[in-house]
Amino acid sequence: MARRITADVLTFIVALGIIYIGASFLLDPAGQAAGFGFDASPTGEEAQFLTVKGVRDIVSGVLPLTLLALGQRRALGWALLCEALIPLGDGTLILVNGGSVAIALSVHYATMVLVVVAGLLQLKVAAVRERELARVA
Stretch 37-57: mean pLDDT, rounded? Predict the structure, then answer.
């Protein structure tokens, strides 16, 4: 029970957090760009391409909430593990391009770890539930 609650709370934190970040990039792409981690950030009309990141982030948050609401914990666990590749890629691109090491580590890689933990916990909860159902059957 505690593992399920922890998995669900982490999933909500991950999902709602990335939806918030996505909405922020949709509403103020130029203002959010500086906090992403690259040394140079687009401004003005050039920053509008960051709205694509906003949409990506919102969908990345809606997906786990949908799977959780549908009770699809195994699919949710795997989806979270796949979604962990996004902050991994973001942090790596920042480092490769000479951006902020502090932001790459404290924001992107830390997010990746949180998403991986949430995904693994969801997979564990799903496995426990499947074993319980098998015993009853």
Answer: 83
